Amino acid sequence: MNSYSTIRPIPLTELGHVTDLSVPDPNQRLLWVVNTPKQPFTRIPGHSMDAYVYFDPDENQWYLIKTALAGASPKFAQAKLFHCVYPDGSDFILPITQPLPGQSPHWCQSMTDIIRQAKTHWVNVRKNTLEKCYDLAHKKLCQHVPYTADYTMEESLGVAFPGKYYVDRADHPLIKKLQRKYAPIEVIEDDEAFFE
């Protein structure tokens, strides 16, 4: 069981939910967000949620996006977030994102199939870059989850996406960064072609 520091509430209505999301202060992650688990894991029953997220490859960090701001960047992806646990009892958040335009759907489809099996089994995942998917390397029946969730999924998200990792306003530094990086280029017509 994990012990989290003092937390402050943020309305989950901003994510399209009706309860509270709690986050610690300052920007210290107390619960990691993991792309590809490196050891066997299972999911915590009842601990999943739909949300919008962004993975910043420059920082190697995940961000949780307020639903009202999901349209602020075409790089924000719809996702299902799962609260998972390793055999030693340490927990993490596993996002499964819907593919953005031009991305292969195989990553999402394969991890969705694996997470279904993680309801009742310990699963090992391997990243298959050749096929652009995840492979189920091994599974074993899970008879006991070594974890007691003394807090809600909303509280789990609060400690996984504290402070700057929760994008809750239009002037958030991440939105500004993405707008600069992916800003449309203004086309200026050639003067000669214009006057012909």
Structure description:
A 6-stranded mixed sheet has the order 3-7-6-4-5-10, sandwiched between helices. The model is unreliable at 1-13, 16-26 and 185-196 (pLDDT under 50). A hairpin with a 5-residue loop joins strand 6 (77-85) and strand 7. The longest helix has 12 residues, at 106-117. The chain has 196 residues and is α+β, with helices and mostly antiparallel strands. The chain starts with 6 loop residues before the first strand and ends with a helix. Helices cover 17% and strands 34% of the residues. The protein has helices spanning 106-117, 153-160, 173-181, 191-195, and strands at 7-11, 20-24, 32-33, 42-56, 61-65, 77-85, 91-97, 121-128, 133-141, 166-167. It has one domain (7-171).
